[in-house]
Amino acid sequence: MRREIPSLRQEIRADVLTAYPEFAPVFTGPQASHIDVAIEQSLTAFVDQVARPSPPSPLRDEMFRALGRTAAEQGYSLNALRGTCRIGTRLALHRAKKVSRHCDLSPLFMLSFADTLFGYVNQLEGLAIEGYMEGSTTVEDDQDGLRRRLLQLIASGTTAHTSLGELAERTGWQLPEQVSLVALSPGARPARTALAPDVLVDLTDPQPALLLPGPLDAVRRASLEHALSGTLAAVGPTVPLATATDSARWARQCLALAESGIIRDGPVVHCENHLLTLLLATDPALLEQLARRELAPLDGQPATRRARLTETLRVWLATRGTAAQIGEVLHIHPQTVRYRMRNLDATFGPQLTDPDHCFATEAALRALHLRRTAAP
């Protein structure tokens, strides 16, 4: 079994994540390496015990108590913890059967092996439950920690599993039908007293956030403005609970655009007012590629001339106005506009009458204009 351990560890990891997606932050976060080590060491220790029976290692015992404590402190259910042990047992036994067929081992030996495996996993599960109970005692008084965990689960998209409902029940928080996620600038310290008691707050994350349950009405907006008191923040659109991760993602993108000066109506920015800007500005590399393709006919022009023609083209696509109207926007003479438009017509040809090209060109030019006019 020794050479099977690395691939078996990966298989257990993948199956646990499939069965319990709420464990994704643990398997991908700062603790990921510790989890991988714990799985691998538990498998190695079992194979060692089969080969050379010996008393259990105190280090192994404490490792599994620590895993149980962590599960409790982070708000995972005891059923989920037990379920991961069952998944590991099932996969390990399945792999052992494959090896036994390859090595032509007797059914009697495999029966003994399976009994030993079940006994070993029962030990590990007992240690993990012991740690879970210790952690639960600590967590009972840490309602803020449970509410933070609840916010993290919802923002990461883990809204379909029963653990979310269990955690909400433990915190006395009623699961809403709709939510709005609010992204805060690092170091933000909103006034808790100005927020309603049902607002979830996580200021420990590198990307601090709030969760507003229910409709984002005028009362919510006013209390949020008061609580943030000038802190830069972005409010994601109100979405169904199951798609809260979209609201969180858009809020963070909107906050980044506000920090870069592309969006300037803060300090509290509402994504609903900037959906087109979000669409145009959240993939700069792709927009550069689009602009390079659509503006290729201007490649041979000197930089100054290219800039003038590009700006004239942007205003014409945005307004489809007369030479006088475009000249008023650009602060130039209408005759100059007509001269530039003749140049553009000669340079782009049929591209300026093709709806798809016009739409792509306008999108690229709007995005470039947003970036150029961003506040410092």
TrEMBL record:
Organism of derivation: Streptomyces lichenis
Limits of the PucR C-terminal helix-turn-helix domain: 309-367
Coiled-coil ranges (or none): none
Start and end residues of each PucR-like N-terminal domain: 2-154
Pfam (any one): PucR-like_N
Bilayer-spanning residue ranges: none
InterPro entries: CdaR-like_regulators, PucR-like_N, PucR_C-HTH_dom, PucR_C-HTH_sf
Protein name: Helix-turn-helix domain-containing protein
